[in-house]
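Feature request disguised as a bug report, sorry. It would help if multi-protein outputs had a clear separator. Right now it looks like this:
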Amino acid sequence: MKSMPIILLLTLLAWPLTSAADSVQKGEIRLEMGEQKTMSFKGLKRISIGNPKVVDAKTVGDADTFLLFATGSGSTNLYVHRKDKPTWVFKVVVVDNFARETVVLKHADGRALEQLLRPYLTKRGKITYQRQTRALTLVDEKPVVAVMLKMVERFDVKPRQIQFVLRLVEADKVAKPGPVPDEIKPVAKQIREVLRYNHFKVVDHAFLAIEANQQSKLHVGGQNGYTMELDCQMVAGQRDSIRLKFHLYKSAKMLPSKKDVVSARKTLIATTVELKDGETAILGASRINGSGKALISVVSVKLK
């Protein structure tokens, strides 16, 4: 008697030991890639899977329960063998609903954008940012990635130009205050109520236009030697708000023993504030030495 060819023998051994006569088609199970599904059948004897590259399974809890894992896209049959009953056959379809998109950012701060998008991720989602290449990679379910791509498109735009009008105001407390200069009228009430000054004189003013995420320095006050430093950032997730780090300092000459004259800087105002487009605000105040007067910094912001 001739022996059975090895290839045919292996094929028969791998085939589920279930014939059409003793099996019942039970419908379709749809899973997404990576999804798990707990299934339970009374009198479960064993299970078999047509293609283990599509789904895998392991028993959990009691003998009638198992966990089905979606491991690869495609379709296969799940055979549920029961004691003294027909085998149930389920068609299992695994859909790869994940998307992977990489965007090379042109303008946006990658780290800030990464933090902005992270709350939108599902448990299986992932965001990575490569500073060297400015590549932002989004991996998640297709609808989630689509939403994040729209947000990237919204925020990865050329930085807006920010125009500042900066004013140095000398404030005093007098019995008969003069009229309030027009340029500080939006904050005059606040100065009166909070700082308790009632007489104002604009010492100097300056106009500055820079792009967001830039730093700048300018000198004001003429011979008084005041310097303003500005570090301006857009507020993440907001197109009409900026975060401004502001320093006002005065250069003072010092003469160390047996050394040349050098300049030391005396910080008068240091603050960080959030400002909206069109807003006028007080950045801070510093008392002028030897008097009851104060030097107040006032800023007006316009986003272009």
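(second protein starts here, but nothing in the output says so)
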Amino acid sequence: MNGSRIPDEDSKSAGTDAPIEQTEGMRIIITGASSGIGRAAAIELAKRGHDIAVVGRTVDRVREVAAEVGGDPFIADFDSLAAVRELGAELLAAYPKIDGLANNAGGVIATRALTNDRHERTWQSNVLAPFVLTQVLLPRLLASDARIVFTSSSGNKLENVDVADPNHDRGRWMRGFPAYGQAKRADLMLAKEYARRTPLHVYSFHPGAVATRFGGFDSTPLAPLIRRVIRTPEQGAALLVGLLTETPDAPSGSYFTAWDKPDRGAAKQALDPAEGAKLWELLEQQRSVFAWRAMKRVDEYFSREERFSLGVDDASGQHYLSFPVTIGVADYEEFYALDDARYRDYLEDPSRALPFLAECRNREHDELLLQKPGWNRGIPM
């Protein structure tokens, strides 16, 4: 490789070095795979011998792309968190091993609206839904030593991530571009948070200005002219393909553009671990308010009872819950998968969580722990 840069279509003839690593026969999940760079990435990866799970919301297009690449179609509307959780369950049932996850779904939404989950659509489809899906799949991703890639954008510099106003109620709308900028910055920050919290290779990238359905470039009368001056979906997808199959000479969590060094073009807020921790806590709360409240209540109760402690990692300042039993990622996700009746039960009397903790004690966890060196086998919060 040339430094830490993943080669793209424009650089293939520029004498770049061989990639550090090239994997074969991977099982890769691509969301937003029914058109644009998601479709282009699916086609290229399939040509290289990888097995593709094609995820999208439009049934006919998803099935068409799946047939084209010899992959499996999965239908999910990211405007529904219930549908995203169902998608995660289907993927776990279908694949005992998952080698790569491309969180590529999303886009600009011109008219402000809320989902049935009461989140602004841009935020939910670009940030919260991918987070929910990744969390559901996380135990399997960890067991598979998978790669995770988030499609971000140079638009990450347009707007701060405001954890007090993720629905962008107080901000300018301007046909959705400020909300999109906030969402794409959040995606960049999420990649860095997963890199901090897990041993996985996690990256984000900006594909460049691409002639896809996303920007409406494919349907304008000027499309033939526009295609001469901006990137094709295949060129935009090259960086996604590279990050899924090659190991860049850069830290996990790095943000790439199609033409520059890691983290060049990333907003200052996106590089701040404290800001990333705030975003993580917000998303944990948003994906299940009942679960989040119950976890906090159990935390407070057992801290008082000295059955576990709320600690702080000296190096990063990150808070974690240290239980008297080993809590793995699978346990953590199982807690978030409980029904609302159980959460109400724990909220009323947190000591009722003891049987759940006892079950965790008896499980084999091995590498399936959200921890960093020096942490006391805890759950980062």
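Even a blank line would do. Unrelated, but nice: Residues 121-143 form the longest helix (23 residues).
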